[in-house]
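Hi P.,

Sorry for the delay on this. The queue was packed all week, but I finally got your sequence through. Input first:
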Amino acid sequence: MSKHSPDADVAFISALAELLNKNELTELSVKREYGEDDSLEVRVVKQANIVTTQAAAPAPVYAQAPAPSAAPAPAAAPAGNDDPAQHPGAVTSPMVGTCYLAAEPGATPFITVGASVAEGQTVLIIEAMKTMNHIPAPRSGTVKRIMVEDGTPVEFGAPLLIIE
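Then the structure:
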């Protein structure tokens, strides 16, 4: 059992976030050792609004990596001009973490494309700092699109799925 105060950890994390902003950093990782079997690992990430950069950045990366894909990448760009995060039915990630579509490996996914969901129903899980965070549907509707795969990392604000 840990002998350190959770309030001290919260103050420490707040100080890290302030340090991140003050020094114009985008990411900061720290591991604090309290004892032989007790430690705190913190990763603070600052997500910038890069909507226009986000749309423009993948094209050069894909065009440079595989030469045969150079032609399809620009063709896909006009169709991708509608940013999924701006869709009125978009469900975006409330945190940085790893996205899971089912409660455990091999289990039935929480949702599938075409499935009806009720407001508050768990649609996926995001693991952040070894904590499983159930993400509820913000509204009732039909799942039109799932934009993440099971076990993939997600950023804050990244579109996860669309419910209409």
